[in-house]
Amino acid sequence: MTSRPEIGVEIAVIGGGLVGAAVAYGLIKKGLSIVLLDEGDSAIRASRGNFGLVCAAGKGDKLENYAPWALQGVHVWAEFAKNLIAETGIDLELEQNGGFVFCAEPPALKERIEMMERLRRKSGLDFEVMQPAEIARLMPGVSSNVAGAIFCEIDGAANPLKLLRALHAAISATEGALRRDARAERIERTSGGYRITTPAGVVTSEKVVLAAGLGNLGLAKWLGVRLPIKPMRGQILVTERYEPVLKAPSEHVRQTMDGTFLLGGSWEDVGYDTSTTFEVTRDIAARAVRYFPFLEKVRLVRTWSALRILAPDNAPIYEEIAPGAFLVTCHSGVSLAAIHAGKVAGWIADGALPDEAAPFALSRFESSLPEREVAYG
Amino acid sequence: MSAPDLLIIGGGSTGLSASIVARELGLSVELLDERPALGGNYFAGAGNPSAGKTKLGEGYAQGADLLRKANGPGMRNGAFAWQIEPDGKTYFIDPAGKVGSISPRRLLIATGAQERPVPIAGALLPGVMYAGAAQLMLKTFGSIPAGRAVLVGSGPLLLLLAKQLLSQGAAPAAMIETTPRAGLLMTATSLPAALKVPALLSEGLGFRSALKKSAMAWHRQASGVFISGRDKAQSVTFTDRHGQHHTIMADLILLHDGVIPNDHVARQLKCKETWNPGQHCFNTTVDQWGETSRKGIFAAGDCTGIWGVEAARMSGEIAALEIARQLGFINADERDRRAAEPLRQRARQVAFRPFVETHFPPTLARAAFAANDTVICRCEMVTAGEIRLAVRQGASGPDQLKSFTRCGMGPCQGRSCAMAVAEIIASETGRSIGEIGRHDIRAPLKPLPLGQIATARDAAEEIVA
Amino acid sequence: MTLQKKPASSHFPLYRLLVDGPGEIVVDLDGEQLAAHPHETVASVMLRHIDPSQYRRSAVSGEPRAPLCMMGVCFECLVEIDGQKNQQACFVRVRSGMTIRRQFPRGERQ
C48: distance to nearest CA of chain A, Å? Predict the structure, then answer.
């Protein structure tokens, strides 16, 4: 195999999942010369585990400044979707009819209401508390065996697979902007910026964006930085197609535009194990059938799992971890896609993170403050 | 809860042979087969008393005998395994629709073969079936084509079917054989091995002479095949070896382009596999005893690779012997003594195989040449053109491709499209099919109702002994 | 295309029995009584009685589909049996009194 020549760009984005692709797309819109380095099929691909919610409800529980950011993220989604659809012809299946968070038992509902009130004070995110009879207007078939749900009018969902595909399509429309099978094996700091070695060739760039999800752990090490992120497994179930019934999503049960139901909501701390288990499959199925008894006869077609990228407070991390090296990580790749393609890409293009990004700095994690050793090549 | 020494998934000739050997040596054995009757493909219908009416002779008595010997407690028909854990624990759904589980000490996968998918234009039309389907109709249900049947494709099974239909007075109207001429010449390496099993050679030659004498129109070295019809298949068109186009009217079109392993169970377990260029399919990696890359999990027969029915049966017996040794029922010397003959017979069969492979390479199934509007994924209606576009837009492998196009997301989980997808991606990217591979297989191996899984809670409590 | 209860002129099942016999098992296919033999499956009985274009419609394309493999691999033989949708007819043995309903979307998803 002939070796490919080195390529030089202004910004190299490492990681072709929802986060990296959104940032890369935004940078191209700003007129920068970029390359998106995607590992390809063998990547951990948290993006494949995304439920597809475009939502603000509940965001910021552990980091209050996340609440207004998440809300802003939802507000800019429709415009972002419109442009991306116009550019690529790929329908993102965006629905913004509101979204629910179910609470099976009264104590959980009470706790959730308290949390939502706290977040409303911080961000202005409006919400209602609904009983099954009211929930049924948007989610028919809901059982009365549910204490209640939080409803946020601005929330909704999209198709995460189509979103990733559309982003890749838009990026690959620029010659050479998407390089696949290009796992970043090594990053070195150089006088001009950075030098990244991949199986698909060497890339030199002025700036680099680390958007490789859990892969950022290894990448940041090259720059002498330790990250406090860890994997958190989520298992997802998808059913066969069904006549359209649910007009809005809930956190654990939603119906896609194909008619299939997505069921989820598991959190397991199991390292990098991406297998699925009978017990969790059963628990997710049991909860879904409890909430929507009609699901009993609907057939499960597939289960899979993905690893969320979790910071200790479940909020994003945006930080310049070395001169010109920007870390972008979160576990809401769909909800934040628009703001990543917009504002965050803008920060990186400008070359500096503004005050608005301060709440998301790495330094907020006192106990895992990284050793700021940057190697010069 | 059930905790046998050995659980066998698949009740065809391989699984049945293994169960007989294992029981003889004192192991407790359970077997799951998703069909309503045991026998798999080769011995389909062997348990059906009325099947004797169709005088297919040959293996029939052998099949009935095998079923009789294998019969016993722990043989579950109509039970399909839908999730298997790495330690061999298997969740299945029984004919009543209840979820159960079995925790064996050893697992043997014997899920046999499937038809190589043939993604040609018109293949989706009602009235198009695989040659194997017509064979099952004949062997199991004593049914023959009611109208004009045309056989299309390549492979020993196609010739066998033609001969079987002929012997039942139901000769096909035509056979459009796509076997290339080059394969008809025997290779220097395969001939000596082939001559060691003259029975197989003459069997093959015997088919041809019988068919030549019949009224069936026989077109050789055909290419460019497609099927047409409105709401159902009505005709098949092909190009003959002189470049002339022909259209033949048909009610039933029977396709065949060889068989490939039915290896979903092994893939769900992430057993290692390699690409076998001679067979043009993936083979589950097993040692000489049949143990896969997962300790304690064995695979035998057609599901690991295609070497013929005798080799498959021998592999079943060989695996059972090693499993018995591992569990302490026999020692290594005893195992070697009993395995000597099956190993020898298997080696002979395996040596003959390249002759068949060279003679019958895949033809219709080569999806890299499919037109853009040819449907590759039947479940989700994804065309070759859409797949090529997705590859160009960044999908470098089958999982990303699945995620971009929904190809493989339907109920069949890629059984009909995975090979074609690999071919197309290979052709678009210049990488080999072996490197590209196929998408991840996930539980459940077949769809089942959420309610059955949700309520398995009670069964699960019993299961935890 | 409407569901046909009576055979039309183009009605032509794909298969027939080699040796025709009375068939002691009676199943209900969309209201019509069909005779079947003990070892038959729903798929084999249907292929002997109905025109292939009348077997089923794809949930995705709405086009006519019928069994392809008869061994559980293709998922084209799906029918509703005794109230349960999307059963693989090639795996279900006939039983007297069984009700079989074909799946034709008609504006409704399968």
Answer: 29
CB-based burial of residue B1 (10 Å sphere; 0-12 exposed, 13-18 middle, 19+ buried)? middle
Select the residue of A41, A278, A299 nearest B399 (Cβ to Cβ): A41
CB contact under 8 A, B132 and C15: no
Contact B126 C52 (CB under 8 A): yes
At residue B201, does pLDDT exceed 60?
no
- ipTM of model: 0.91
* Separation in Å, CA of A133 to nearest CA in chain C: 26
Q: What does the pLDDT average to over B261-274?
A: 97
Q: How far apart are CA C12 and CA C58, in angstroms?
A: 21
DSSP percent split of chain A into helix, strand, coil, nearest 5? 35, 25, 40
- The set of chains that have 3 or more CB pairs under 8 A with C is A, B
Per-residue pLDDT of A164-175, as tens digits, reads 999 999 999 999
Q: Which of A46-50, A138-142, A261-265, B377-381 has the lowest mean pLDDT?
A: A46-50
Peptide bond into B444 cis (omega under 30): yes
pLDDT tens track for B383-421 = 999 999 999 888 889 999 999 999 999 999 999 999 999
Taking CA atoms, what residue in C is nearest to A259?
C109
CA–CA gap between residue A207 and residue B342 (Å, rounded): 64
User: Residue A238's closest chain B neighbor by CA?
Assistant: B409
CB-facing half-sphere around the CA of A338: CA atoms within 13 A: 25
Match domain B128-257 to its CATH number in 3.40.50.2300, 3.50.50.60, 3.20.20.10, 3.40.50.2000: 3.50.50.60
Residue to mutate among B34, B111, B129, with most C CBs inside 10 A, is B129
Exposure string for A78-94, b = 16+ CB within 10 A, e = fewer:
eebbeebbeebebebbb
Nearest by CB: A243 against C84, C86, C108: C108
The predicted structure's pLDDT at residue B350: 94
Assigned fold of C36-101: Ubiquitin-like (UB roll) (3.10.20)
Give the long-range contacts of residues C89-92, CB within 8 A, separation 24 or more: C89/C41, C89/C42, C89/C43, C89/C46, C90/C41, C90/C42, C90/C43, C90/C44, C91/B34, C91/B35, C91/B36, C91/B78, C91/C41, C92/B36, C92/C41, C92/C42
- Residue type for B226, please? F
User: Who among C44, C70, C75 is closest to B379 (CB)?
Assistant: C75
Q: What are the structural domain ranges in chain B? A: 6-115+260-356, 128-257, 367-431
Neighbouring chains to B with at least 3 Cβ pairs closer than 8 Å: A, C
pLDDT at A286 (0 to 100): 96
For residues B189 and B351, give the distance between their C-alpha atoms in angstroms, rounded to a whole number.
Answer: 10
Q: How confident is the model at residue C7 (pLDDT cuts 50, 70, 90)?
A: very low
Measuring CA to CA, which residue among A332, A45, A21 is closest to residue B399?
Answer: A45
Domains in chain A and their CATH numbers? 7-51+162-227+313-368 (3.50.50.60), 230-310 (3.30.9.10)
pTM across the whole model: 0.92
CATH of B6-115+260-356, one of 3.50.50.60, 1.10.10.10, 2.60.40.10, 2.60.40.4070: 3.50.50.60
Rounded CA separation B108/B425 (Å): 32
Residue C3 has pLDDT above 50, yes or no: no
Domains B6-115+260-356 and B128-257 share a fold: yes
Top CATH class, B367-431? mainly alpha
Contact (Cβ atoms closer than 8 angstroms) between residue A211 and residue A19: yes
Contact between chains at A243 and C85 (C-beta distance less than 8 A): no
Average pLDDT over residues B125-145: 95
Instruction: Please report residues of A whose CB lies closer than 8 A to that of C84.
Output: 297
B411 has a chain A CB within 8 A of its CB:
yes
